[in-house]
């Protein structure tokens, strides 16, 4: 059961508790659940609907520890990892505002607060800024799974990862069932070799099964004496799930068309090619005016499509014949500068709509949205939940969305997905186990800057959930491949990448 709001805020310094009440209000259900547990040092998996304040749920205890000096500054203490570069930049902006307000609140109360610096490290970060982070690490670092692995591969990067107190894994549902998730969680396990044990906080929208994701986040802690076969203890991860139900206002609307003609055209094409560009369907002529009416009826609208091609096409058609730009496209192939400008224009009310791929699917703050429009049914129910949740993102708000399918089968899919969203009946996810291609990358990273004993390397890799059941034979075969055993196949990718010394058992 959630604790009382006063008890939840009692774990923080009085200045922080007073600031929260005055600037934010009453804690949400998930915040009342999570803060006492996080303050107690437990590993947690926090699941709650969009707009529940999960980011501040994860960060506020770290801010308390840093501002009060409970965690010594001058080194990296809190690491935040999310799947999207755009989300990282957004989190940094949204973290700097409460941090500045808290520093002012401490000063007004006559209490000295320690300085807290926040930095972002991703593929968009300039080289000079990356070097500055190595020389003078921030207390809070915001990064992506790929950039975290790069930091772990370099000597300079590892040098700043030696004093971690907490690691926050945001949007864990978006990566857990993929090889990106494997790459991420093996990197988290590798951090324990540098920092020792630290608190793990994973954040997720609704996800199933929670117990599996909790085990994925926690991994295993080796426990054995010198020379003994390692024994592993699973790290306990507390599951904290909000019981609040998200309110939805959904509509599935297929533009009027000749169903028989649409069916004939669809039957003549592979499903992957059933795009509304087919003149036999006549869908665009009916769909675009509908989309314009929706946009003109709102202050701000976010439209989603399932591919970059459709995203750009919809944006172009919406803008044709108009008296100004009605919508901009937004996808991962655009530069950070362009994406940021598009996001800010919508947030400031200077742009009526954005047409996006999944680049805006996660919790990026683009201001208050009146409505979300889905052009074609998303590939999964979980994806639909994320996209629809961009509207009504605030606590207790209703998420309003319209789904516009583009052919008869898509209409059936949209109806099923809409009902599943309302009932929160999302798909189960399963982390990938024993992915040998990712294992090869991880091993190369682990031995790139230091010699390692082969047995210790194997034991360390098995501490992560995806490789806990990895056989020694599979591991040795990957090592042999990386050492060039198969180089005579004339496949350049199989040239030697590392050196194995079987005499002293090192690599």
Description of the molecule:
This protein is of the alpha/beta class and 507 residues long. It has 20 helices and 15 strands. It has helices at 5-9, 14-23, 29-39, 54-67, 85-108, 127-135, 145-153, 155-159, 172-175, 179-195, 210-218, 259-267, 283-296, 308-319, 336-347, 381-388, 408-423, 436-447, 454-461, 472-482; strands at 43-47, 78-81, 118-121, 140-143, 166-169, 199-204, 220-223, 231-234, 237-241, 247-252, 301-304, 327-330, 353-356, 371-375, 398-404. Strands 3-4-2-5-6-1-9 form a seven-stranded parallel sheet, with helices on both faces. The chain has a six-stranded parallel sheet with strand order 10-15-14-11-13-12, sandwiched between helices. Strands 7-8 form a two-stranded antiparallel ribbon. α3 (29-39) runs parallel beside α4 (54-67) and α7 packs parallel to α18 (436-447). The relative contact order is 0.11.
């Amino acid at each position: 059961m959630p604790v009382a709001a006063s008890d939840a805020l009692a774990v923080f310094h009085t200045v922080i508790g007073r600031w929260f009440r005055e600037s934010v209000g009453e804690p949400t259900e998930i915040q009342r659940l999570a803060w006492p547990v996080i303050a107690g040092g437990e590993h947690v998996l926090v699941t709650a609907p969009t707009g529940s304040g999960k980011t501040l749920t994860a960060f506020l205890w770290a801010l308390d520890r840093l501002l009060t000096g409970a965690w010594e500054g001058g080194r990296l203490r809190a690491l935040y990892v999310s799947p999207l570069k755009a989300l990282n930049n957004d989190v940094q902006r949204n973290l700097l505002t409460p941090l500045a307000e808290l520093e002012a609140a401490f000063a007004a109360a006559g209490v000295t607060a320690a300085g807290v610096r926040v930095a972002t490290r991703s593929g968009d970060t300039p080289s000079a800024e990356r070097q500055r982070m190595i020389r003078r690490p921030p207390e809070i670092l915001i990064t992506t799974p790929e950039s975290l692995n790069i930091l772990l591969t370099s000597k300079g990067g590892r040098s700043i990862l030696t004093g971690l107190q907490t690691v926050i894994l945001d949007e864990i549902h978006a990566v857990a069932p993929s090889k990106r998730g494997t790459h991420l969680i093996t990197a988290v396990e590798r951090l324990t070799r540098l920092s020792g044990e630290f608190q793990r906080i994973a954040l997720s929208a609704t996800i199933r099964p929670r117990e599996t994701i909790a085990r994925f986040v926690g991994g295993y802690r080796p426990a054995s004496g010198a020379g003994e076969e390692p024994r592993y203890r699973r790290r306990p991860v507390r599951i904290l799930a909000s019981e609040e139900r998200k309110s939805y206002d959904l509509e599935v609307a297929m533009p009027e068309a000749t169903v028989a003609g649409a069916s004939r055209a669809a039957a003549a094409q592979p499903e992957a090619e059933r795009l509304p560009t087919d003149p036999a369907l006549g869908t665009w002529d009916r769909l675009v005016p509908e989309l314009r009416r929706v946009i003109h009826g709102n202050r701000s609208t976010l439209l989603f499509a399932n591919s970059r091609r459709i995203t750009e096409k919809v944006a172009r058609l919406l803008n044709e014949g108009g008296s100004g730009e009605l919508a901009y496209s937004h996808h991962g192939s655009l530069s950070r500068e362009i994406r940021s400008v598009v996001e800010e224009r919508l947030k400031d009310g200077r742009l009526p709509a954005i047409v996006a791929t999944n680049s805006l699917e996660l919790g990026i703050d683009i201001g208050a949205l009146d409505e979300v429009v889905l052009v074609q049914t998303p590939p999964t129910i979980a994806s639909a939940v994320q996209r629809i949740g961009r509207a009504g993102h605030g606590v207790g708000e209703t998420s309003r969305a319209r789904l516009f399918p583009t052919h008869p089968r898509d209409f059936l899919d949209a109806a099923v997905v809409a009902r599943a969203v309302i009932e929160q009946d999302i798909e189960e996810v399963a982390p990938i186990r024993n992915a040998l291609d990712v294992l090869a990358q991880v091993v190369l990273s682990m031995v790139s800057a230091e010699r390692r004993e082969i047995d210790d390397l194997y034991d360390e890799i098995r501490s992560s959930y995806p490789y806990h059941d990895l056989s020694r034979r599979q591991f040795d075969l990957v090592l042999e491949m990386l050492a060039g055993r198969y180089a005579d196949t004339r496949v350049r990718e199989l040239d030697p990448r590392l050196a194995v010394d079987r005499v002293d058992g090192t690599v």
